[in-house]
Task: structure prediction
Amino acid sequence: MNNLESFEKNPWGKTLHYKYSESFFHVSPSPETVTGEILLASLYRRVGFQGAGNEAVKEIVRELGTQFLNQVQKKGKRPGNTDSPTEIDLSLWQNIVTRSITSPKLPNQSKHRGQQMSPIVPDAAMYSMSARLRGKPWNPGKLVCNIIALGSDNEEQALEIWQLLYDGLSVDQKKDDIWARMLQVEFESWRSDKVKRAWSKPSTIPADKKMFPGDFKVTCPAKAFVADLRVVLSAKEQLTRRQWVTLLESLCRIGTSAHVMWLCNANDWCYQTFEKALKKGEALDQATIEDALSSIPASWSIGQRAKNTIMDTARRYITGRCAMNLLLYMLEDAGFDMDKIDLGSPARLASTLEYLAKDRQKLDFKDYQRKLTEVMERDNRVVACKSGTSKNVLEFLEHVTRQRITSEPGLESYDQGFYLQKKGSHSSAPWVVGLGPLSVLLMVHCANSRNQGPCTVNALAKQLAKYGIDVGTQLGQGGSLTTSLRDMSIAVDSPDAEGGMVLVSPLAMAGK
Result:
């Protein structure tokens, strides 16, 4: 059985063509269900706990977490039986670990997940907030790392922002607030020997090499994320630790979701472009490819129901991925020179299209169309986003962006950094696109930070568009976003501004 036959037999397994795996539009790591706090905790682990030679802190944190809680709750003493460096009472520390910094439980949450600590300081991320309880969980922090790589001009710039992120996530014993300093110092005193010096500054950025495509003049969410990450990092000293980490979490939520949606649409565009080259002989130059990838339309609109948009995006991805891999295997089987096929950057993609258009007669295009139909019909559950990769993508996009509904009274407003919210209070109410108060503040501050003059509603609309969100009429008179801006005292009436409003960020002085 050759590679083509293996792919046709199992198109949804680990049968990706190596040329596709090396492309910049390959979704890697493959995303699964994740919440904002799990995403942030994984980012801590990727930045400072999973450096070269450090194998003690893994994505599956249950072993370390169980040891830590046993030490705190049952044994009641630190490794080595040392005293508290903060002179904190044991019973108070137990209450902090099991109550004060715990994340609220979700409705119907598995009892096996137990108490999860909010990743307010680095050490909290060592013991809880894993994407899966068992097996090999996916690494959300690696996704953020790859986004930074793609959104940077080169590897040196990516490493710089990665190290700045490490500095921000670290607890500075002079600049962080007293709560964060006390927590981190106390946590460190409970470390076991194998993680004693686990938190360390990275000397390299652990991103996939394919995420450094070189000359990448494409306007995409990854570029916006890197620019806004600098803004958020510069705001740290103006905020409490809790405020800052939730601001960073909100940025990571919209950054990862927008990036994955952009990649899904890029897969769809690429397979259709390949088909045109092989069927009609149409080839595109580098500039045209960059313009096309930069012009991928907004994914959703504020106030719009999210379910159908997310499902359509997942379907476009699974169709594009399947078609691209089938084409690559068929091109290889037909005798095409695979050294001339490179999907690593727009420039190399242009050369590939030129080669395919020139030699297109070597491929039986009708046979490709027939095979694609057969492969797509092989498992309708995957195409319907009810199984496999498409379901995982759908669940990722839903869970990372939507407001967290808790089962604990009094904590209904725990999540403020969401981008999807319930339209109604009943359990079956649909999820619609809508920004939480913290998300509004984040987007206004990022828009404000790069504006020379007054920040207007038009600047905010452009800021949201970078992440695939169309404001539509929601920034007009009576719009939901306008109402939120006025309620938060961010919008100030000004006859000289577009739309009659100037947007003033409460964090406008951060980093200045």
User: Anything to note?
Assistant: The CA atoms of residues 52 and 352 lie 36 Å apart. The first strand starts at residue 300 and ends at 301.
